[in-house]
Specification:
Length: 249
């Protein structure tokens, strides 16, 4: 039996190891490459021309949608998206020959996704146009952060967010309407949110560059930024150097 050549694209080591372990139980799948970011994924896709890519949507540098947009025109693998965020599911399921796995997923759910790709390959069903796919999923760039409030998600525009800070053992999103608690780490949000808006100030805070009111010279070659909502954040020494470059100070 001809095997499916597969690439795993996942930036978090525990998730990579789990995917490798799960896929090792499927004799019909041959893992030909493992990538840790978007650029490495593109290189492997071009070099190895896989049948299927297990592609994490939230990756540093190029996210999963950016990767799809930049696939070489002569290579058209099937894609199985993986992510921890359910709000990506609806559009992903609307696209033919592309499946979607919500972390943490079971072996049975992974089996269903693999069977779908095998069926398409047997029937010689072509993978979709990746530019059409990217257009179908363009809402992922809608510049809103979903925050669970009670029994529903509130979509907060990036432009409304001043800072995201860790405090009292939780992550809080501060906006002009108030603050919201979110179940995500600063590290994850830094990777997920666009760098043209958000800057990692220190170990426990992201700031919206578009809402900086003042930058104060601070002790130890650091800056203190005062935001438009009055909150002040101390920028770490190393990050102060990067902020100076980002704002061309």
């Amino acid at each position: 039996m001809e095997k499916l050549k597969a690439i795993i694209a996942e930036d978090e080591e525990p998730a990579r190891k789990r995917m490798l372990s799960l896929l090792s139980e499927f004799p019909e799948v041959e893992i030909v490459g493992v990538a840790q970011d978007g650029l490495e994924t593109l290189e492997l896709v071009e070099q190895l021309q896989p049948d299927v890519v297990f592609l994490d949507i939230e990756m540093p540098g190029l996210n999963g949608i950016d990767v799809v947009l930049n696939f070489p025109s002569e290579v058209k693998p099937h894609v199985i998206f993986t992510t921890a965020y359910a709000e990506y599911a609806i559009k992903a399921f609307e696209v033919n020959a592309v499946d979607y796995l919500l972390k943490p997923f079971s072996k049975e759910r992974l089996k269903q996704a693999i069977e779908k790709v095998l069926k398409n390959k047997k029937e010689q069903t072509a993978a979709p146009s990746w530019h059409s796919l990217a257009e179908s999923l363009s809402y992922l760039r809608s510049e809103k952060l979903p925050v669970l409030v009670g029994d529903r998600y509130k979509l907060i525009p990036y432009e409304d967010i001043y800072t995201i800070e860790v405090g009292q053992r939780a992550t809080h999103v501060y906006t002009y309407r108030g603050s919201y608690r979110i179940n995500a780490s600063i590290e994850h949000l830094e990777k997920r949110l666009p760098s043209e808006y958000f800057f990692r100030a220190n170990r426990s805070a992201l700031i919206n560059l578009k809402h900086i009111q003042e930058i104060v010279l601070w002790f130890g070659n650091r800056y203190k930024v005062i935001m438009n909502n009055g909150r002040d954040i101390i920028i770490s020494r190393e990050r102060s150097k990067l902020l100076r470059k980002a704002l061309k100070l």
